[in-house]
Amino acid sequence: MEGTTSSQRRKSLTKPTSTHSAASSTTSTLPSAQKILGRRIKLKTASNEEIEGRIYALDRLTNCIALECSTDNAAQQGRKQLSFRIIKISHVKEVLSNQEDAPTDFLPINYVDTNRLDARESSGVKNMRQRVAKMGVGVTKEAQDIFDALSKTLPCRWSNDTIVVLDEVLIQPPYDVDSCKANSSSASSLARVKKVLEGERRRLERKQ
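RESULT FIELD:
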């Protein structure tokens, strides 16, 4: 190229290969997932960290490799304790060693039912919301203890600092029997709540 010295051309030819280029080379040399799952492998990352483990999964979509690594105290304790490292293949600088044959006792990843995972997530979120709904905001520990005790036998919810029981009876601070209020049509529910509240307060006082 005109205006380029021979010294500049030599420098451009001797520039080190980028990490991305090295990783691309590593990716191209990796065989199919079926052939490498279960093999032990030792890698050097772009940050020069050496990681050794068994190949647990290879995801071409995210371009990641998952290694199953034994913890240092696993052998000492005589039980199997495993940790996993997920590494971007683009972060792999070099494959230091690679077991040729996968062990016969390696169990591949089973099918994951995403519908069951979604159901578990929905159930967990629902349970957490129910737990949060039972936590009073800005109330005393005594008030929360009374709420928790009542909610074991009666449906309760918070309305600011007031405990609402059976959606009919209101228990306002200081949360004693005289603090219970209800409409005349809910006289039976009021009597029931007062009886339960009186018993729970006595029980809580004995625990103190």
